[in-house]
Each structure stands twice: as structure tokens, then as C-alpha cells.
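Handoff note, outgoing to incoming analyst
You'll be picking up this chain. Sequence as last confirmed:
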Amino acid sequence: MVSSAAHMCGFISIFGPDQQDVLQDVLAGLLAIQHRGQDAAGVVTYREKFQAKKGLGLVRDVFEEKHFGRLKGHLAVGHVRYPTVGLGEDTDVQPFWIDYPIGVAMAHNGNVTNFHELKRNYFGERHVKLASNCDLEVVLYVFADCLARRPGTAITAEDLQAATREVFARVKGAYSVAGVIAGVGMYAFRDPYGIKPCIFGRKRTEQGWWYAVASESVVLDVAGYEIVRDLKAGELLWIGQDREPRFFQVGTSPHRPCIFEYIYFARPDSFLDGVSVYGARLDLGAALAKQWQATGLVADVVIPVPESARTAAQTMADHLGIPYREGFVKNRYVGRTFIMPNDKQRRESIRQKLNPIKAEFEGKRVLILDDSIVRGNTSRQLVKIARQMGATKVYLASYSPPLLYPCLYGIDMSTKREFIARGRTHEEIARELGADHVLYQTIPDMVEAVRTAAGKAGIEFCKACFEGVYPTGDITEQMLTDIETDRMAASKT
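Most recent structure output, in case you need it:
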């Protein structure tokens, strides 16, 4: 069995007034981040005891009307997951919880890079057998074990800080974590480098304050919460029985948010670390237009690969003074090909997912814009379709730079041997894809575009998938080998 260690998922946790049931808000939030994971969904609530419902599939498939009668409570945490490595079994579906020696429920978004090492050593030496292949389990046990060893009986803010500090010391990688402690309150923390997003919000009703933490601001928007702020890198949020939100700076590393969130994963109507995802994509399109002009090539139309490339394609077309057209119609009921577990499924789903409008291609020099080019499966198919529809020239552009290195922090984008850009020139990539020309964003232009949207000149990002520089500084050859082995094994399932 291979590990389900790598995740790019979504979570929401809510602390409502006593005797209020928060499930409706949790499910509304999960529906808003369904794009972050369509493989599985789960919710754990607390009223006198933990109640859970978890399953494989979309939120609407997993939850039914009858669950509102059972999943009672003013404390809850919910999660959506996409399949990365592993077999996607139901034992890996989050959230996780334990009842003894202390009641703790937890969900996360990210990836524990030393998962295998912890399994072999830290847990092996303690004769602890993990019940799943999900790396959240190691975070939960390290956190809860520290709380169980607290000096007093009541759980204090100091106890939460100590438990978070213990996680940071032992658990490497990138992870935003949210959860609840039975009958006590809600907590959330962001890894020391703040690679994964985590945002806090609140709303007031006649019954009192409702507090929530989530992976993206849009989750809070749709559930009616006002945004308070993002958690900082290495920061802990704790809301105890007094219902006063408290923030504690536990980690001291520099903030390095994932830049790929702005390129692909987050919804365009989200704000991450105060940066509009929509604004970042507008600026990415404008930057790429300047590079296109420098090539001296001429296109008649800009056609985005829906959904994520639409925003950038609009500004690219505007700056080039050529029409923006919807040349592909997307079937919304086919999952995201990027996150399908193997190549065969991806190839088979592309034509089912994107159907062309012939009139937008016939007799035209088309510039197809995508957010990124990973393995090249989608790109190759799209170029082929464009030619079949009668395009005279097919140019392919990516508003992110060439992907060259595996993400070890929670995006299962590829093993390094699968990246089409690795070891090839742009001309060779174009030939491989059947395109007349391939254009990539440069790393400096990408960073500048997101900085412009942020209004923060000095902000730095995690760009490991483009540069191979991992900001945590603790990536070993063994970690790379473990994750590569997992992903190669998973691709054969």
C-alpha cells in the first residue's frame, strides 16, 4: 500500500454559539471549495461526543438531508480532498479525530514531507500503528500527544502553543491545519513558512458570534462571514471557552506562500494573504502579452482553456488588440484532469471535458492560453483538436513558467521524469505537442504580476515547482525518493 501523503485539499472549521448547529455553514463552505477536491468529503461535529460523516465523492453525493438530524453541534470541521497518491480509500478521508486521552478533531491542506521517516522512527519506536495512509494522522497524534502531557487539567492557550510548537519541531513540510477540541473550542495553525493558505472570519447573529477558519476567503464569503485576516506564517489561532479569538506567533520562519495557488488552484473570487486571485491572473495575462509581442508572431484570436485561464486570456487579448473567444465548451461534470490519478484517465477525459466551437478555429491563427503545462497530455490534445477544427496556426501559451520540479508541499503535479518541459527547449516542447510555437511566462514576470496584485513590492513566494528551491530547506534525497516512489506506484493503480 502506498501513502496518501500529498494533498491539495480544502477545509473549513466553525465555532458557533452554544446549542446552535453549524453543519449548514460547514457544507456551504465545502461546496464553495469543491474545486480543491472532488475525491472525498467529510465533516466531524461535536455535541457531547464527536459525530462524523465521511465518504468518497462530491459533497452533494456524500451528504443527505438525514445527516442534519445526526451531525449536531456548535463545533465542527469539514474537508474536501482530491486523489493524489495512494488508492483513495475511505480510511484516508478527513477529518480525523481521537476521543482519548483528549478529544481532538482535525483537517489539513498540505503535505508532510517526512511522513515516511516519522512512520518508521517516531511512531515505530513508540509501537504506534497508524490506521490510515494519510499524513494528517501524524500531525493529529503529535499534536494530541503533547496536549495529553499538559501539566494541568484545563486546556490553556499555553498548552495549545506547546502542542503547535511540537508539531513544527517534528512534522516537516507545508500544512495548514484546523480543528476542534471536544467541548472546549477551535484552533488553527499555519506551517512555519505559511506555504498553505488559512483565513479567519466571523459573523454575528442574535445568538452571538460565529467564528470560522478556511482554506480560501470565498468559503467564508458564501457562508456569510466577514473576513478578519489571514493567519500569518507559523501562527496559531485559539478560541477557547471564553470565545475570544487569540493569535500566537509560534514559528519564526520567513513567509513563503505558494504562488501556484494564484495561478491555478484558488477560485478567482478568493483573496489569499490579501491578494486578489482575480487581480493576479489579470496581471499575469498582461505580462504574457508583452512577451508574445516580442516574438513577432501574429494571432487572430486568444482562446482560453477553461476555467482558470479565462481571466488571464481577457487581459492578454486586450493588450494584443485581438478578440478573446470561448473556443472550448467545458462539461462541468467531468473532474479536473490535472488531479486525475493516472494518465489513461486524463487522456480519456479531455475530449469529454472540452468540446470545441469550430467557427472559432476555422481558418484562424489561434493562440490557446492555459494556466500551466504539466505532462502535456491536455495541451497535445487541444492542439490536435484545434487543427481538426481548421486552425491555420496553433500557438500555445502558458501564463506560468515551465514546471520542472515536483512539488513536495501538497500539489501532486508530477514526478520529475513526467514534466514535459524537463530537459527540452521550447522548440522541442512545441514539436512534442504539435504546436507552431510555445510561449511560457518568465519567473520574474510571474512574481512581479502577483506582487503587483498584492501591492507588496517585497513579498516572496514558494516557487519550488519552477526553480527546484524548496523554502523549508530540509528536503532530503530520501524524502524525494519516498515521494517519487509513492507517486510512480500510484500512477500504475
